[in-house]
Amino acid sequence: MKVIINGQPITTDRPMTILEAARICDIHIPTLCYHAKLGVAGNCGICVVEVAGSANPVLACETEITEGMEIVTDSARVKALRERRLREILSSHPNDCLTCFRSQGDCQLQDLVYQLGIDMDTVTFRSQAQMVDKDLSSPSLLRDMNKCIKCGRCVAVCDQVQGIGALGYVRHGAEEIIDTVSGLPIAETSCIYCGQCINVCPVGAITENLSIYQFTKAVADPDMTVLVQIAPAVKVALGEEFKLPAGTDVSGKLVTALRLLGVDKVFNTDFSADLTIMEEGTEFLGRLNNSGQLPMITSCCPSWVKFAEQNYPQLLPHLSSCKSPQQMFGAIAKTFYAQKENLNPGKICVVSVMPCVTKKFEASRPEMARDGIREVDIVLTTRELAKLIRLNKINFNQLADGDFDYDLGFATGAGTIFGVTGGVMEAAVRTISEVITGTQREKIEFMPVRGLAGVKEAEITLNGQTLRLAVVSGARNAARIMEQIKDGSSPYHFIEVMGCPGGCIAGGGQPLPVMSTEIQNRARGLYAIDEGKAVRKSHENPAIKAVYEQFLTEPNGHLAHELLHTHYTD
Ligand code: HC1
Ligand code: SF4
C-alpha cells in the first residue's frame, strides 16, 4: 500500500494505522496514550493529523491507512488542536514539576509541553481545591491521581499483561477517573506491587515510594555503617540512565559511584543469590528424596509471593521456604558480617539497589526482621540511584571501575543470571546436577530455560531420574501454572516464577522505557557477565564456602533455617 505523509511517499506491506506508518519512516506524531503492546489508543487525543479529502482531522493511532492516502502531521491546524487538547489536560494536572520524580526526562507530558512550545504563563493548572489525597498506603508504590492523564496504560498492563485487574476506569460523579477498581487504597487491593503500571505511566501519577531521602540521611550519619547490595539486573540497566546502550555492564562504575555517595561497603546481591541456590537446591533435593511437597516453586520474587499468598493460600507449601537473595543478604550482613567486623547490628544500615519496587514491600514485611532490627533498611530502585548520582553531580561515564568488597561481594555467574527469567532455574541446575551425579557438568549453560517466553519447559535426567522443570514470568502465566497444581495436573518437579514478564531485567524500578529491545539487551548483558566469570556455579563460590565454614555450618542447617528461611501468610 502506498501513502504520502508530509509529502514523503511510503510503501507498506501490511495494513496499519497512520501512526504506525509514520513511525516506520521516523515521522514523529506525538501521543500520550498510545502503546503498541498494550493495544491502548484513542484516549489522549494528541495524535491528530489531517487527511486530504477529510473535513475533520483524525486520530493517527486509530485510523487505518488506505491506498493513496495523503496525510499531514504538522499543519498549523493540527498544531493548534494539539495545543488546545494539551491545555485541557494541563488544566486538571498540578503545577508541581519542581518536586515530581518524573520531571526532567521521564515525563512525556512535560516533553510535549516543550515540544509544542507552550507558554507556561498562559496555562491554567489544577487548583488546590481540586486536589485529591495521594495514596501512600503501599511501601512500594505512590499514587498521585492528581497527575493522572487517564491514558489507560496502567489499567491495560495490570489487566491484560498481569491478569490482576487492580485498576480501572471508575466514575466519580460526572467525572471518569482511573482508580483502584474497589476504590480502596492500593494496599487493600489485589495489587502485587509489580510496578508494571509505573513503567508504562507517561507521567508521574504512579511512581516508586521514594527512599532517596532516607539514603542521604543514612550516609550522613557518622554512627552508621552503610552496606550496599546491588541486584543482578541493575548492573545491565543503570547505564541507560546515562545514555549507554541497554545491556552495558556498569558494575565497576556503579561500585565507584556508591563509594562517592558515601557508603562504607559495596556488596552484591549476586553473592546472596549463590547462597540462595545452596539453600534452595538443598531444600529441593530434600523434598525429592523424602517425598516432600512437589513441585517446589522458587520464592525470590516478592510480587510472586504476594500473588500466591493472595490467590493460592492452599498451595503455599509448594513455595520454597527460602527468603529471597535480598533478605538473605541482610540477614547475613547483620549476623555473620557484623560479628566478623565487630559491628553493632543496630548500627548497620543495609541498602539494596533493586530493579524492583516490590522489594521495598518485602524489606518491610514483619517476618524480615530479627529482634526488632530489619534485615534490609532501605531499598532504592535503579531509577532512584540514577537520580542520586545525577543530583550529586557525579560524572558517571567517566568513573573508573571499582571492585566489590569481597566478603559479601564475590559472586559467581550463576548468581548474576538470577536477574533474567530462567536464570534461577539455570543456576539451580548447575548445582543440583553436580550434587546428584557427583560429577562436573560437561556444559555449564542450560539452554532450554533461556529466552524471554512467558512459560518455558525443560527436562533433565540425572542418575536415571528425569526432573521436569518449568520457568514462568508474569503473574498471568503464574496463575496458569498454579491452576495446574490445583487440579492435580502439574507434571513438574521444580518451577521458577518471577512476577514481571521477562524477570527482574524488566522490573518496575528499571530505567524507562522498558520495551522489548531494552529487555533483550539487558538479558544478553547478564549472560555476557556470566560467561566472563571464572567461577560460574554457586557451590564453587569461595566466599559462600567461607560463610558455611565460619558461621552457618551447612545448608538447611539449624542456623541457616533460623536466618535464611521464612514462612508465608495466608
Ligand atoms: Fe531480582 Fe533476586 S533476581 S528477585 O529479579 O532473586 O529485584 O536483579 O535482586 O532478591 O539476586 C530483583 C534482580 C534480585 C533477589 C537476586
Ligand atoms: Fe497492577 Fe502491578 Fe500496578 Fe499493582 S503494581 S496496579 S498489580 S500493574
UniProtKB/TrEMBL annotation:
Coiled coil: none
GO molecular function: 4 iron, 4 sulfur cluster binding; ferredoxin hydrogenase activity; iron ion binding
EC category name: oxidoreductase
Residues of the 4Fe-4S His(Cys)3-ligated-type domain: 77-117
EC number: 1.12.7.2
4Fe-4S ferredoxin-type domain sequence ranges: 139-169, 182-211
2Fe-2S ferredoxin-type domain residues: 1-77
Name of the molecule in the record: Hydrogenase, Fe-only
Native source species: Desulfotomaculum nigrificans (strain DSM 14880 / VKM B-2319 / CO-1-SRB) (Desulfotomaculum carboxydivorans)
